Amino acid sequence: MTEQTIIASVRSLLDTGVIRTFGPVFNPRNLGYITTLAAAEVEPDRVAELAACILEIREITHNYLREHTYNLWFTITARNDEILNGILKRIEKFPGVKRILNLPMVTVYKISAVFGYDNPSEERITSDTINVEPLMKYEIALVKALQDDFPIVDRPFLIIADRSRLSEQQSIETVQKWIGNGTIRRFGARINHRRAGWSNNVLAAWRGGDIDNIGRLFAQLPEISHCYRRTPHHDWPYELYTMVHASSNAEMKDILTRMKDMADQSKPVFMKTLYELKKTSMKYFLEDS
């Protein structure tokens, strides 16, 4: 394909919603932020009201209704523990919320929301504990410039440079450095997988067995986009969380059967995604504006 054909195709896919956004996917921890996954048991007649409230909470970037007693699952990205815990307490006090689980990450085995490939990609085995170097002022300016709509033109970094008051070359070199050290997990299109054909989605949680080994095995499966180890609770002993995608119920059933065979002694719970209630990209450093 020619450069202009690719640019026109990306613009078209953005217009039709197959591509949600184009640009960098940042690792929040490398920017000094913290994250968690939370699950809430919510009375069914209160779900819509709470979902509307969550739309207004910037730090909650993803929110899904799933087929389980814990029916609402959402992710939080916050500047510090105080903000994160404040959001959890706010949700916990919402009318109709019976229980809430905070499931902070322990280990990442895979983050790879790349669809249509036969082989897994972008797997990263990493601990949640990392040493983060504070960003320089010019780096914060570049993050803020990149998180706005990325220009789909032949020289996009010329526009990014103007936004961040850097040179085009400095912008490109900094992005290349961030891709190399994991501050940017990947740079490209974020796909609406449902519109692209992967309409069947299940969150599978696992308990027991050799969790670390199972997590590494699951990370090799192309049908899995996310694989994490998270802190269990006494009344919720699940430690390994896998996000599984398929194009049909039959395909999903086959994948989950293979996963159970691979998991040996680990026991799963499967939670089908019923509705995507919110999916946005985190906007970083707005507090510094």
Verbal overview:
The chain has 289 residues and is of the alpha+beta class. It has eight helices and twelve strands. It has helices at 3-16, 47-55, 81-92, 137-146, 156-164, 168-181, 211-218, 249-263; strands at residues 19-26, 34-42, 60-66, 72-78, 97-103, 105-111, 126-127, 184-191, 200-207, 224-230, 240-246, 267-279. The strands form two sheets. The chain has a ten-stranded antiparallel β-sheet. It has a two-stranded antiparallel sheet with strand order 1-8. Mean pLDDT is 91; it is low at 118-129.
Report the uncertain regions: 118-129
What is the 3D form?
globular
Helix content: 25-40%
Content of β-strand: 25-35%
Topology pattern, helix = H, strand = E:
HEEHEEHEEEHHHEEHEEHE
State Rg.
Answer: 20 Å
Q: What summary fits the major beta sheet?
A: 10 strands, antiparallel
Query: What topology, given as strand order, has the largest sheet?
Result: 5-2-4-3-12-9-11-10-6-7
User: End-to-end span in angstroms?
Assistant: 40 Å
The pLDDT mean sits at: 91
Number of strands: 12
Structural class: alpha+beta
DSSP helical segment count: 8
